[in-house]
Amino acid sequence: MSIAVELTVSLKIPDVTALTARRALQGPMGYGEVLGDLTRADWWRLTLDVATEEAALALGRELAEQTNVFVNPNKHVFRVALHAAGRDPRGGLTPVSVLTGFRDEAKAALALDALQGRLGYGQKVMGVELGTLWTFWLREADVDRAKELAATMTVTENRHSGLLANPHSMWWRHL
After folding, report:
1. CATH architecture of the domain with residue range 2-174
2. Whole-prediction pTM value?
């Protein structure tokens, strides 16, 4: 049976890329009143050929812990789940998760080749997808309005709108 698990990988130390993006959005781009925080993680969807959801979670953890494909234990923390987990609000802030990625991303195909080939997982790993998971922590109680704001901050349309996804070379979606 084909079961997908999501592996999110983030840094143990402060993420300067997310901090820089947050400062740009809060400062020159004018979202300081609404954007409380911005976090980032690598997001992997692993399609696995296993019998149960428990087996899928176990294999996902094994792939994260026993291979060098996804996680460097010296600098990363990770989480394996069947789907992206909702985040607890931070001090009244509304979390909105956005997934971005490059079209024709080669890194996911290389990871799949390594897992199926040299690492010996064969057909247990049927597919690998890669993206970047951005979580906006917004001062907006209306979830629909919060999603609109996150989309505006994500997709680059001009120098005052969007920072995280160039629509010419990248895709994005709410998670």
Report:
1. 2-Layer Sandwich (3.30)
2. 0.90
